[in-house]
Amino acid sequence: MKTERRSAIKKIVASTTALVGLGPMAMARSEKSKENPLGLPPKHDYFRELGVTRVINAGATMTFLSGSLMMPETLAAINATAHDFADMYELQDKVGAKIAEMLHCEAAMVTSGAAAALVLGTAGIITGTDADKRKQLPNLAGDRPEVIMQKSHRYVFDQAITTTGAKIIEVEGPDEMEKAINKNTIMALFFNGAISWYGIKDSIDHEEFVAVCKRHKIPSFIDAAADVPPVENLFKYQKMGFDLVTFSGGKMIRGPQSAGLLFGRKDLIEAAKLNNSPHEAPIGRPMKVNKEEMFGMYAALKSYLERDHKKEWQDWLSRAESIRSEIATIPSVKGETHVPDGPANVVPSLHVTWDQKRVKTTPKEVYDALKGGTPSIVCGGVGQKDGKELLSVGVVLLRPEQVSIVAKRLKEVLRQAVR
């Protein structure tokens, strides 16, 4: 018996020694596991393994191009929080409270992008804290809820509104908006980027839109997904009186691509959270945000607010000038820095034009050549100004070392077309 007990004790000691990592080799293994607790292979090239083409984004924060690149602070937050569990109710509440503090508003939450914020914000307004209504969405009993929008503001993403079962009522001008409000009206949605998208002036400006909503005691919601920079826009619309505001997290804030911000009135945010995961039944369950994205979104917003925006803007202008000076040596090729009037996607890009009799190619052909080349460079697209075709080259999403790559490749493609 003593021999068996002694043998058992030896086994326990041996296994304990292995677990606590005694000895130089075991300690080294222990330290290594701390650095890489998931045991992932270092610098594994998943692009190559899956045959996925790496793209240089000389365009904009388009979802089909995976949005933007996350800031180091965002990645650090994701990596630092990936190895422990958290109560998701607590995390959403506490991250939301910190974000609300940073944005000087009543309440906030992290969503799976701005489109999900539209669904959840609308759902929260429809259901409030009524659990039965949450279970019924999108097939709520009785008349369909109605959401008012300006006719010129209809856009592809307003399907997020009808996903909740609501019906969109189109209006033009403040008078029509007043008349359209009835017992079924639950809110009014303002698409902030409509002017940028369509070049059509709003029939109801921000202030009058909010004023009409307040007179009739219906919530006002503004979609400002792509509307930073400038950083001031994060505070501007709530100051105007909008009850709910949404911004994309994965655009120029440079958080996770599948994250967004919804903020505003506390009662509406709390109702929106009830319609979202981790609650198991509601309409927002498929719009789950994982804990890493919540921490990452928090870190990204904190980083964005602390950034030197003037310095960043000057850097973007310098990039545009660097590319312009490289291609200006080609006969008739000109580059002009362009900044949209806004309010959406207000960042500088380079508009490139040339005499197609001297450089015998079109902007579309250059776009295709850059995209199909090695490396693959996707530009902002082709357009026209003063009746002349142009190629738009974005600079804000380039990594520093990619500026010269884009400049030289663009110069090479254009030079090949010189006759």
TrEMBL record:
Alphabetized UniProt keyword annotations: Aminotransferase, Pyridoxal phosphate, Transferase
Cofactor: pyridoxal 5'-phosphate
Pfam families on file: SelA (PF03841)
Keyword Transferase attached: yes
Keyword Transferase assigned: yes
GO molecular function annotations of the record: transaminase activity
Database matches in InterPro entries: PyrdxlP-dep_Trfase (IPR015424), PyrdxlP-dep_Trfase_major (IPR015421), SelA-like (IPR018319)
Family under the similarity heading: Belongs to the SelA family.
UniProt name for this protein: Aminotransferase class V-fold PLP-dependent enzyme
Taxonomy of the source species: Bacteria, Pseudomonadati, Bacteroidota, Flavobacteriia, Flavobacteriales
